[in-house]
Design goal:
Number of helices: 4
Radius of gyration: 46 Å
Largest sheet: none
Structural class: mainly alpha
Length: 151
């Protein structure tokens, strides 16, 4: 006679059945359910319909379930960015006004500085003309004389 199984062995066998054998049986059952219509249907269009349904059930639905948290995160980020855009709008308009005012002031000051520089340059233009004439090489030297002086 065989020894009766102890309680821990019985519990272990139940756990093995639930954790290993039962999922395998469910997987094989799903495979049989999937393959049966493909084998039994005589028309290729009918097989295509079954393939489309199985694609939705076994590919698209799991992808949707797995990516749903990402979708929710992107949705929350989109609304958050919209809210941030609304709240920062006033600040950015104020910065825009300040930079526009600064631009106008800089343009006014630079126009005044340009005017002063041009007047100063035109008033001393005779000095520049005189200096350029003074330091110009004389044209009465020949090319050979210039080469000798340059060496």
């Amino acid at each position: 006679m065989s020894d009766p199984l102890s309680l821990s062995e019985q519990q272990h066998r139940r756990d093995v059945f639930r954790g290993i054998v039962l999922p395998m049986l469910v997987g094989v059952g799903v495979l049989v359910v999937v393959m049966a219509p493909v084998i039994l249907l005589p028309n290729a269009n009918q097989v295509g319909i079954v393939a489309d349904v199985l694609m939705i059930v076994f590919v698209f639905f799991p992808v949707f379930v797995c990516l749903f948290p990402m979708y929710l995160l992107l949705l929350v980020l989109a609304f958050g960015i919209g809210h941030a855009n609304y709240s920062t709008g006033r600040f950015l308009r104020r910065v825009n006004r300040l930079t526009s005012t600064a631009n106008k002031r800089v343009a006014t000051v630079s126009a005044q500085v340009d005017q002063v520089v041009l007047q100063a340059r035109s008033s001393i233009a005779w000095v520049e003309d005189r200096l350029s004439r003074t330091f110009q090489p004389s044209s009465d030297l020949t090319q050979d004389d210039q080469d000798k002086n340059g060496d």
